[in-house]
UniProtKB/TrEMBL annotation:
Its main location: nucleus. This is Ribonuclease P protein subunit p29. Belongs to the eukaryotic/archaeal RNase P protein component 1 family. SMART domains: POP4 (SM00538). It comes from Crypturellus soui. PANTHER family: RIBONUCLEASE P PROTEIN SUBUNIT P29, RIBONUCLEASE P SUBUNIT P29. Component of ribonuclease P, a ribonucleoprotein complex that generates mature tRNA molecules by cleaving their 5'-ends. Component of nuclear RNase P and RNase MRP ribonucleoproteins. RNase P consists of a catalytic RNA moiety and 10 different protein chains; POP1, POP4, POP5, POP7, RPP14, RPP21, RPP25, RPP30, RPP38 and RPP40. Within the RNase P complex, POP1, POP7 and RPP25 form the 'finger' subcomplex, POP5, RPP14, RPP40 and homodimeric RPP30 form the 'palm' subcomplex, and RPP21, POP4 and RPP38 form the 'wrist' subcomplex. All subunits of the RNase P complex interact with the catalytic RNA. Several subunits of RNase P are also part of the RNase MRP complex.
Length: 201
């Protein structure tokens, strides 16, 4: 039985023959004399499986499931007053406390990008006179409409197009021109708005 260096040499030779069966003994010995052996390992390439995209509900499916429907028993103005208080605190934090010396343009810019769920708004101008005067808490904001609950516990769906909304908090009054505001809340946060003095309906 071989021992020491001879045993190691025999082990290496046997290992190389198993690892590189196509290589001749002379070539193996030549590699050993150079004292540089590189063993190549060919791994099987894994096939990349196509990731299945998580499929959301279609607009039709959302309507059928009534995901965004507000049930009649939930259409109570008093039920959403705590939400309005949370929204006011959110805006105060967003506008650095809404101090009396705060710049109106800064407040306006923040409000244009803020989440309006919970805000109390009033329709001040409209091409459709029946919308003028509607006041309530915004329960849902969609791309083209606001869903507003009034003090009379009535749910109003008010389109943004051709309507001007008045929003007041801690003495600051802001006007939202719905025609220039037709975005989803998530899209609006990244939108750049140009502050203008007046905009026609």
């Amino acid at each position: 039985q071989l021992q020491g260096p001879e045993e190691a040499k025999a082990f290496v030779s046997a290992f190389l023959k198993r690892s590189m069966p196509k290589m001749k003994d002379e070539a193996i010995q030549d590699m050993l004399t150079r004292k540089a052996v590189v063993l190549e390992h060919y791994s099987k390439k894994r096939k990349k499986g196509k990731r299945k995209k998580t499929k959301g509900f279609t607009a039709k499916e959302r309507r059928e499931l009534r995901l965004f429907e507000i049930e009649p028993e939930q259409r109570r103005y008093a039920l959403y007053l705590p939400l309005h208080e949370l929204w006011k605190q959110y805006i105060r934090d967003l506008c650095y406390g809404l101090k009396p010396d705060a710049q109106p343009q800064m407040v306006q810019g923040k409000l244009l990008k803020a989440d309006l769920h919970g805000a109390i708004v009033t329709v001040t101008k409209s091409k459709c006179p029946s919308y003028v005067g509607i006041t309530g808490i915004i329960l849902q904001e969609m791309k083209y409409v606001f869903k507003i609950i009034t003090k009379e516990d009535k749910l109003k769906v008010v389109p943004k197009l051709n309507n001007v909304f008045r929003l007041e908090i801690d003495g600051f009054i802001s006007y939202i021109y719905g025609s220039k505001f037709q975005f989803r809340a998530s899209e609006r946060s990244a939108k750049k708005f140009k502050l203008k003095g007046t905009i026609d309906l």
